[in-house]
Amino acid sequence: MNGTPITELSARAREVFRVVVESYLGTGAPVGSRTISKLASLNLSPASIRNVMQDLEEAGLLAAPHTSAGRMPTESGLRLFVDGMMQAALPSAEEQAAIEGRARGGGTIEEALVATSMALSGLSACAGIVLVPRREPVLRQFSFVPLNAMQAIAVLVGTDGTVENRVVDLPPGMPPSALVEAGNYMSTRLTGLNLSQARGRMDEEIGRGRAALDLAAADLVARGLAVWSEDGAARPVLIVRGAANLIDATASADLERVRQLLDEIEGKEEIARLLDMARGAQGMKIFIGSENKLFSLSGSSVIAAPYRGGDGQVVGVVGVIGPTRLNYARVVPMVDFTAQALTRLMA
């Protein structure tokens, strides 16, 4: 980025630059001087506009693709526009209701996050992304419900009110009474602990012979804690929904860029690290193209905002991934509103 401040541009240059950027973001096509001259508000001849566009190109804010006589904003130009010229449009009442409805649609916290990312993806026409809170559930109640002679459902109720189910394999001959005993033991002795702490206490009490359980129930407790812990460790910290939105009407002209972007999204760990940078932010973070090495090849943008838990601490990040040709004025406040909705959900 060349660092050209908006204050160094003349009023005429700012207006021409704004028209070029807004037209490009709307159509994806380079903008020519003849198109700009048709706007009555400018009162400039095509020749004057060409001179201004040439100056903007020399400043590193516009570029002329070799296949077109028109101009399009560079990544530096987009950054200047987003930071200094963009007039954000708040989400409509319908869009706000759609996001809030998905966030509060019931189910577990993770289900709400998935639903919210899908809503954000659909409204923004981008891929919706959510960085899931990195925390283990804290036990409030645990029970086992028999399915058949070989399997049971382990039901975990967290202190935050979440309820999640997992299927646990049973050893041959497990009596129904062991399921009741194991559930009662866990709800009594392990309440208030997360899964790692619960496994540590369980191992300690069994090792010292202090666990008031028969062998069958003790084995079932160990199985239940193991399946929950292993599942939590394998659970992706990043949820991505709506990647198909990235293959838009202009994708056929730039299939390699789209392929590269989809490959980058597939590598969730790298995107999760990128979103981690937004955890410490007080508000919105916008990454445009090669400003971040991850998207230097695909030329994509990420708009992300942190959301907070009931204690006011940042617990995750929500946002979108899309081409640099985004309707930033619409999508930026939409992401911000979604972060606020998730913060209210977590409260």
From TrEMBL:
This is Heat-inducible transcription repressor HrcA. It comes from Sphingomonas arantia. Keywords: Repressor, Stress response, Transcription, Transcription regulation. PANTHER family: HEAT-INDUCIBLE TRANSCRIPTION REPRESSOR HRCA. The keyword Ligase does not apply. Belongs to the HrcA family. Negative regulator of class I heat shock genes (grpE-dnaK-dnaJ and groELS operons). Prevents heat-shock induction of these operons. The gene is hrcA. Residues 110-332 form the Heat-inducible transcription repressor HrcA C-terminal domain.
